[in-house]
Amino acid sequence: MKELSATLKEFIEKQELLRLAYFSGTGHPRVVPVWYVVINDECYVGTGATSAKRKAVERDARVGWVIDGGEKPGYKGASFYGVAEEVTDSGVRAAVYRKLGEKYFGSESHPKFVELYGAVDDAATVYWRLKAEDVLAWEY
After folding, report:
1. Which CATH number is 19's domain given?
2. CA dist 104 to 1, 29, 43, Å?
């Protein structure tokens, strides 16, 4: 896979939303914005264990995602494709949980974060590592 520039990596880590594409239950592509964190240059997302997104990715783990933004003339972004791999390691799940809480709520103990994601080991939340196979990046 192509290497991203240091400035683009930094940009990606600071953005608010990742747009995740997957195949719906009817086989159509669906794109949804999700919260995400970057750990060791890899993107991680969480979703409900009974969500339509989870069911779709269980059927077909192939996904695509885009992280982009900026203002004219400083657009930046990257479009990836690969697979979503469920995170089962409790240490990695805890790291993703902590980073999501800190990024979006300032703390993993924030009441709204806990309401949305449950406890750190809550089986009602699934976390995926988005394993990129290829990327198309731009900075202009």
Report:
1. 2.30.110.10
2. 29, 27, 15
